[in-house]
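User: Before I run my own analysis I want an independent prediction to cross-check against. Here's the chain; please return only the structure tokens and, at the end, one sentence I can use as a sanity check.
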Amino acid sequence: GRYMPDLRDRAAAWISKEADHLRESGSLPLAFAYYEAAAKVSPGELWNQVRMGEILAGSGDYAAAIALFQHVLERAPESPYTAKRLDGLFVEQGYLKEAERFWKALAEAHPDTSVPQLFHGISMERLGNPDAAHDAYARSLEIKPAHAPAVYRLGALKAERGTIEQGADMMREALRLDP
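Assistant: Structure tokens:
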């Protein structure tokens, strides 16, 4: 119980590992149940919830997957893997305005985190608002100056807006940061 958190974490890790094996073997409903059990044993370990979201998305339950990924990001906003999965679902489902609202709210709730700023910029760019995208990318870089995706996107945006050399330099820098 609560008096043995180290045992809870070890138990959750074992359950999660079993869930991974079940998932790899194609037993997705059982894997989901194991991830869910691991999440209950160790709620702070968010990877179990991410894996549950992936199974939900793979089975076509996009609304539940989106809700779960959003929940994870509200607790751990600097999770680029989860952010990319969520944003991909938003795009696949055509939820572009919903994506912008979520990323904006997450960026405002966590103003000192770079990932929500980056994805807010991406959503603004998709909606045709390059000025807001530029500002969001710049905020992301103020927080994490060497964040390659934000460097690249801001560089590409600058190049598109006519500052070609500066934009190209930023895109080359992004490739140097993350080859």
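Sanity check: The CA atoms of residues 58 and 106 lie 25 Å apart.
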